[in-house]
Q: What sequence folds into this?
């Protein structure tokens, strides 16, 4: 049994031929792996490396450099909220506070109890004239307000029945249950420089 | 149709944005029939020798819009068109400089303009294949550009014989994965080759040894979308806009505390007063302007008293700043400069690729020092430390411009707002109402 399905591995083996040199295939290959599994597990990276005939350490080195690769599970719906200056000047921090409260998490990359949501504070997303803004479900969302966040959360929850941790806490009239500390994988670029 | 916040329509200085806002401009059909698209490609391929194209770009005086402002025609002439073997054009669509959104504005409104510019550039420098490196978060621009390339392929403009000319042209896309450093040209090339995006030492320059070790022309999106206009109207006509040394127009993305944030096309030499007060509608909420970053977060700040500074590169250099990426970040008097600088230093520290020590260590050092100051634990020692760290980041001590940019944030905010730094560090007080970021 492989972590990645046979057809994904076949697709990955086709990639190197699309570039002037085969190594360029590493990121598109990691994309396919992450798309299938939600995040990059050590097994998945090992299989990508084998399919591309690369050293797994090299593949992990690439994966840990780029912030769009996730090495730990994230929520099914992940908020990439811009907090760089232009967005901060127009209320990005209030948006972050609201997201945290509504999905019931305390820190970036922590996953809500039902596995549905997580968030991350990201750098400028190149849409500063629409600040505050974020990327969510492969789309940009502009002129954010708490109400817009609520709508998106409600729409995402349409797919399932469990309430979020925030809702459980509020309906119980108490504070959110303390989240399990989750090991965080820092971007490793500095450590091994 | 994407929502338009910025220049579009008929205005004498809308060189790039004249047709923006036209329904379905992103389709080949409308780009060709309404906006006169692909006429420049036809002219370049059928009526001009490659050297004539490069000369026309030289005559226009166009300078790169990615940040460094290098003369575009001159850069093109560095590629030896007759050298054997593959050559590439690589397009920098990584757009990650804080405060900058102009390339996204172009890609969402008129992707065929970029396709046309790329094809002309490739023919001029003797390349048959172009690679667009587009930041991974740009989902919609990626889809629109992919669709435009496929339409151009179906029409034969991308393919073995564009416009009937026996000169194969191909365009491919490569998606980034979230790292500011990929905008730096040699880091971008590393990333395109499937590596960690760490800048290369130069020489060799990309024109000699670029993508996959081959001669490579690397240009920003906006730089290349200007080329079709230059080919259609002539370099001399373009040079009539702007100033002698900074000809033409450029897109400025104005953001922050203004009434009408947007991407505005500005004739170079206009003042920032025009950009901020007229085009972007002035400061929001009845507050006053405090400071602005004239060319992305990496461009040294200018205080409100310098609002009449002009937008051309020479005027900005005289003001000890730069045109950079054209991103104008505007901050009002309700916000604290020390906190704003701290937020930006966190950005540079986080985005340091770690390859060279001054940048890897310096950024974190600055962040920690700001944290002490903002926690009211500062003294003259912290101010001195900040200035020394800033010096250590600049003047060629780092492998690429990221370190310098971090240093310029510290230097320029201190230079213009020393009092505010001293309030925080020496008197442990902040005399500004609101704060921009959580400490
Ligand atoms: C840290 C850093 C980030 C950069 N980011 C970008 C970017 O996002 N887009 C861009 O076009 N140029 C960026 N540049 C400038 C490029 O290195 C390069 O000068 C430019 O893409 C060349 O194209 P041009 O001559 O058409 O301007 C960056 C430079 C540095 C040092
Ligand atoms: S600062 Fe948020 S999109 Fe640019």
A:
């Amino acid at each position: 049994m492989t972590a990645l399905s046979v057809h994904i591995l076949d697709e990955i083996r086709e990639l190197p031929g699309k570039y002037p040199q085969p190594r360029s295939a590493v990121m598109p290959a990691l994309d396919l792996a992450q798309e299938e599994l939600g995040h990059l597990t050590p097994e998945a990276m090992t299989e990508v490396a084998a399919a591309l005939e690369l050293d797994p350490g090299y593949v992990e080195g690439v994966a840990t450099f780029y912030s769009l690769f996730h090495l730990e599970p994230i929520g099914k719906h992940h908020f990439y909220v811009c907090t760089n200056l232009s967005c901060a000047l127009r209320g990005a921090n209030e948006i972050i506070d609201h997201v945290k409260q509504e999905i019931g998490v305390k820190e970036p990359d922590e996953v809500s109890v039902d596995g549905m949501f997580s968030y991350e504070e990201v750098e400028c997303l190149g849409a500063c004239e629409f600040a505050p803004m974020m990327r969510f479900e492969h789309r940009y969302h502009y002129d954010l307000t708490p109400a817009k966040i609520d709508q998106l959360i409600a729409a995402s929850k349409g797919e399932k029945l469990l309430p979020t941790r925030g809702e459980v806490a509020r309906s119980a009239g108490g504070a959110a249950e303390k989240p399990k500390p989750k090991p965080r994988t820092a971007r490793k670029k500095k450590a091994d420089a | 149709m994407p929502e338009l916040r910025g220049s579009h329509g008929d205005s004498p200085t809308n060189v790039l944005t004249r047709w923006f806002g036209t329904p379905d401009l992103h389709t080949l059909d409308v780009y060709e029939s309404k906006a006169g698209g692909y006429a420049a490609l036809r002219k370049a391929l059928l009526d001009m020798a490659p050297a004539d194209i490069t000369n026309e770009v030289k005559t226009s005086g166009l300078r790169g819009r990615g940040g460094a402002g290098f003369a575009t025609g001159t850069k093109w002439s560095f590629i030896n068109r007759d050298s054997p073997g593959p050559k590439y054009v690589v397009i920098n669509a990584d757009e990650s400089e804080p405060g900058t959104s102009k390339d996204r504005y172009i890609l969402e409104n008129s992707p065929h303009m970029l396709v046309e510019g790329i094809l002309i550039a490739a023919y001029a420098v003797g390349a048959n294949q172009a690679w667009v490196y587009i930041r991974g978060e740009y989902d919609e621009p990626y889809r629109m550009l992919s669709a435009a390339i496929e339409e151009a392929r179906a029409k034969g403009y991308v393919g073995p014989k564009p416009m009937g000319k026996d000169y194969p042209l191909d365009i491919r896309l490569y998606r980034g994965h979230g790292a500011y450093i990929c905008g730096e040209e040699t880091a971008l090339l590393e990333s395109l080759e499937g590596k960690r995006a760490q800048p290369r030492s130069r020489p060799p320059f990309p024109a000699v040894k670029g993508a996959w070790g081959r001669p490579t022309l690397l240009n920003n999106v906006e730089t290349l979308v200007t080329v079709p206009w230059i080919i259609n109207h002539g370099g001399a006509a373009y040079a009539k806009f702007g100033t002698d040394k900074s000809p033409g127009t450029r897109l400025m993305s104005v953001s922050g505390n203004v009434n009408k944030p947007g991407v505005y096309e500005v004739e170079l030499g206009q003042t920032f007063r025009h950009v901020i007060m007229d085009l972007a509608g002035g400061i929001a909420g009845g507050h006053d302007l405090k400071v602005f970053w004239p060319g992305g977060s990496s461009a040294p700040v200018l205080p409100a008293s310098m609002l009449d500074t002009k937008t051309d590169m020479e005027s900005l250099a005289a003001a000890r700043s730069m045109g950079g990426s054209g991103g104008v970040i505007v901050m009002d008097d309700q916000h604290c400069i020390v906190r704003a600088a701290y937020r930006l230093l966190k950005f540079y520290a986080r985005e340091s690729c770690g390859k060279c020590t001054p940048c890897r260590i310096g950024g974190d050092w600055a962040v920690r020092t700001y944290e002490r100051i903002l926690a009211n634990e500062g003294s003259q020692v912290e101010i001195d430390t900040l200035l020394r760290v800033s010096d250590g980041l600049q003047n060629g001590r780092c492998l690429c411009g990221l370190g310098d940019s971090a240093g310029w944030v510290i230097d320029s905010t201190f230079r213009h707002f020393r009092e505010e730094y001293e309030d925080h560090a020496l008197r442990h007080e902040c005399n500004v109402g609101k704060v921009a970021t959580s400490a």
